[in-house]
Amino acid sequence: MSEQGEKVKLRYCESGPLHLDFHRTTNGTIAYIREKYGVEFLREIIRRTAHDVYRAIHEDLKRGDPEHLVAHWQHFMEREEADFTISRDGEEITMVVRRCPAYAWVLKRGIVPDEAFCEQTIALNNAFAEGTPFEITTKVTGEGMCVQTIRRRRDDTK
Fold it and tell me: What is the pTM of this model?
């Protein structure tokens, strides 16, 4: 729900069978790209994903509306049974992830998550924030744990 009590229509809200092995494939892909082409190339791929694949979320953020991204977080975290909370303090929105389902799934399969595994979240949030009135910070707080915060940028010109 938006702050105005309206339900946000999600553009990205798969509801069919859940194939968590996607996370194992993602981990392998991240490792391959990082090793073969470097972290900066990986970040650029993720940046383009944020701007092109998740265009509707990025466009809403550019218009000053974070609710599509928040609804996206909520949908996928609930769908994958993450241990998380989303809270609001004024215009600041924080998601605390205590158990990332992607990270946990990879570990459950006996695979060590790539050193850049969490970079996908950091880079995606950084790209979502580009050209918007928001900054989105991602702080990794442990294995499969992070705090993601959306807040309006401070206007240093005044």
Answer: 0.86
What CATH number is associated with residue 86? 3.30.1380
CA 14 to chain centre: 16
DSSP percent split of the chain into helix, strand, coil, nearest 5 = 45, 20, 35
pLDDT tens sequence across 41-95: 999 999 999 999 999 999 999 999 999 999 999 998 998 899 999 999 999 999 9
CA distances in angstroms from 8 to 64, 74, 124, listed in the order given: 14, 11, 21
Range of the domain at 92: 21-152
Structural domain total, the chain: 1
In the chain, which ranges are continuous DSSP H helix? 21-37, 39-48, 55-62, 67-79, 101-108, 119-129
